[in-house]
Amino acid sequence: MSANTSAASQAIVFNLNGSPTSVTADPSSPLLFALRNDCQLNSPKYGCGMGECGACSVLIDGKTARSCSIPLKAVKGRTVTTLEGLATQGQMHPVQQAFVDAQGAQCGYCLNGMIITTTAWIEHLTERPSEADIRNALKANLCRCGTHLEILDAVRLAVANKFPATDTTTSANTTTTAQTSTRSLEEKTPWNRF
Ligand code: FES
Ligand code: FES
Question: What is the whole-number distance in angstroms between the Cα of residue 187 and the centre of ligand 2?
Answer without folding.
Answer: 21
